[in-house]
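Escalated from tier 1: LLZGTKA7 holo job.
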Amino acid sequence: MDAENTLSVTNGDAVKKPFLIGVAGGTASGKSTVCKKIMKELGQTDMDHTQRQVVTISQDSFYRELTATEKAKAFQGLYNFDHPDAFDEQLMYETLQAVLKGNKVEIPSYDYRTNSLDYENKLTIYPADVVLFEGILVFYFPKIRDLFHMKLFVDTDSDTRLARRVPRDINERGRDLDAVLTQYMTFVKPAFEEFCSPTKKFADVIIPRGADNTVAIDLIVQHIRDFLNNRSGHGSTSNIQVFMNLEPETQLGGKRRRGILRVNIPALNIQPNNAGKPNTPTRESLTRPH
Ligand SMILES: Nc1ncnc2c1ncn2[C@@H]1O[C@H](COP(=O)(O)OP(=O)(O)O)[C@@H](O)[C@H]1O
Ligand SMILES: O=c1ccn([C@@H]2O[C@H](COP(=O)(O)O)[C@@H](O)[C@H]2O)c(=O)[nH]1
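Tier 2 regenerated the structure:
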């Protein structure tokens, strides 16, 4: 395991740094559905939370607490939940830092019916190998954007998004049609154009049509599988051995050597930040046979 992905060693067990994936996109583009599909394909859903290798965190858990005046506005659909100022950037950053350190974290869930954080129903995020962080503005804040190892943007056209948001907000978020449409035209649509859409350029992978795009989802799932396999030592990380016949005696690595020399060449290592780059054999990897 390379040092870059290992945090510390406790009782002989290495604490591994999770692979952090940001999932951005407009409202109702299918961010949560894409994350659920990824988790399902990786066999992570019918499993105890403490055992999961892949977890999803929603940016909604980082909405700021509203003052009484803001709450009153929110109930009339007059508060802008789509502006970057609606989020607690610092808390989001500190929480992701803790997650990257392999710590267990507790975050509130979000209650859309009351427009508030729900501390009664906290979510425990257990240490995992892969963490998906999804939300409309996860790529907006540079400090947070820089934490991601991979960035996905779910790109669904605005008509489809509105057509999905209306029934969802009425059925699941306790809104009426007028409030949904007023909020959409006043805040959601302009904020998408000003703050969310421009962050598409930061994405490594753009997923047109969201969860319907099974090809894109399968590719992402395969990438995560490769990462998990490599991390658990089941991937193609075994060394390649090359035998060299040093006859006559040859100067090598500052020493005179002769006979059969075994050279260990570390195999292609598909860890994040190292993708596609074969490791270079080091002087230490030149070992004499016993
Ligand atoms: N591919 C799809 N086809 C049909 N409905 C979808 C699709 N993707 C998402 N939805 C529905 O659209 C709504 C918004 O999807 P969701 O994944 O919650 O979006 P987001 O997390 O981006 O807000 C939900 O009611 C969801 O069930
Ligand atoms: O109290 C709230 C908080 C947020 N919203 C809206 O939610 C979306 C973001 O959630 P998605 O699941 O990505 O759609 C955002 O557009 C806010 O307008 C809300 O209506 N009320």
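The radius of gyration is 24 Å.
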